[in-house]
Amino acid sequence: MKIVYFYRGVPVSTPLMHIRFIIDALRQQGHEVAECFPAVGAQGGVGTVETSGVARAKAWFRAHMPRAAVNLAQIYEARRARARTVEFCLRERPDFVYERYSIFTDAGLLAAEAVGCPLIQEVNAVYSAQHSEVFAPGFKALAERSDRHILPQADALIAVSAEVARALQECGVPQAKVTVMHNAVDPAEYQDLDRKREETRRALGLGDAFVVVVLQALDAGPFPGELLRALKEAWPRVSGTVPTARLTWIGGGSRFDWFKARVAAEVPGADRILLLGRKDHAEVPSLLAGGDVGVVLWHRAFCSPMKIFEYMAAGLPIIAPDLEGISEVVHPGENGLLFTSGEYARAAELIAGLAAAPAEAAELARRGRQYVLSRHTWGSNAAALVHIAKGLLRSAAPGGGKR
């Protein structure tokens, strides 16, 4: 099949990785994917997006400008994307358009209508309901009207969690249109783990330490402050209970330098914390394999954190908050452990408990790896996506019903 992958914005960090993974999986299954990123131009595709000057400029703009200016820029960018996306799709003539949905954006809908093909939207959050802090006064109501107008018109929607699926239905999307499809991993990246573990521990000087791994970017917003609070509450308890405990934190971002300075000044036991900064994704599987437990300290409630699947694939038992987007896939005592969100002392207890019970930790890790590799791969997500598209195309064929 021929697919146009459309995203209105400039994808960086985790969204960019998600886009790369699903596009690669579709191509590996023999499908042709044309990449449409009107904000940065289609030339070079997703592989050149993150290093473009446009990406850097927009990241700075989002981090430093008032919310009203950011919201106005989003509206302008959405309007500007219309003609470019329609033109692109008319030239490519795809079997269907797959859009990573962005607020205020109807360009994918207009392009699919122009071509006469289905539109499938991947929704990682219903922004008007689940990202309300990103809107300046007066813009949230506009965002709600936009979501209620655009989202129900898609032919099918992929929600990354059950909570996102419910938010879609509250926007007027029929339940029959929505499929929950969590994030995933590429199994090929998580092979030869024993060798990767040995090499990483030697390179980082970890020796026989019990290594806690946190994979978390430190970008603008309130999140670095909450993560610092979590670390200040949890880490002294872990390091005081587990003499060999070390922590490796993988992830950079615009607040990394601030976070690093605050950790050094405010977190007891900071000398046993390695803040590795931003790493290319190709390095992440090896860095994860060097650990003994993968921890999510804090996360948004409605997301499907990619890190939990990566922890599992790397053979790490998981400790994470009991948020719905996480508890849908992390089942306590089976493939991980959960704590009440915000109770960081309890998270520390669970970490120390696994350090004291290596057999339990190994069994959780084994089950987690088996679970993710059998149920949450980018290949299976791509196949499910194409299956949905084929169903839409059959129903749109003469005698098959309306698009």
What does it look like?
This protein has 403 residues and is of the alpha/beta class. It has 2 domains: 202 residues, 3-Layer(aba) Sandwich (Rossmann fold); 189 residues, Rossmann fold (3-Layer(aba) Sandwich), CATH 3.40.50.2000. Helix content is 49%, strand content 14%. The protein contains 16 helices and 12 strands. A 6-stranded parallel sheet has the order 2-1-3-4-5-6, with helices on both faces. A 6-stranded parallel sheet has the order 9-8-7-10-11-12, with helices on both faces. Strand 1, helix 1 and strand 2 form a beta-alpha-beta unit. Helix 1 packs across helix 16. The protein is globular. 47% of the residues are buried. The C terminus is likely disordered.
Please report the distance between the alpha carbons of the first and last residues.
18 Å
Helix content bin: 40-55%
Instruction: Indicate the CATH class of the largest domain.
Output: Alpha Beta
Number of domains: 2
Query: What is the global morphology?
Result: globular
CATH architecture of the largest domain: 3-Layer(aba) Sandwich
Order of helices and strands: EHEHHEHEHHEHEHEHEHEHEHEHEHHH
Low-confidence stretches: 399-403
The major pleated sheet works out as: 6 strands, parallel
Instruction: State the strand order across the main sheet.
Output: 2-1-3-4-5-6
* CATH homologous superfamily (4th level) name of the largest domain: Glycogen Phosphorylase B
* Beta strand count: 12
Q: Which band does the percent of strand residues land in?
A: 5-15%
The radius of gyration computed from the alpha-carbon positions, rounded to a whole number of angstroms, is 22 Å
- Tally of contiguous helical segments: 16
Structural class given helices, strands, pairing? Answer: alpha/beta
Mean pLDDT: 91
CATH topology of the largest domain: Rossmann fold
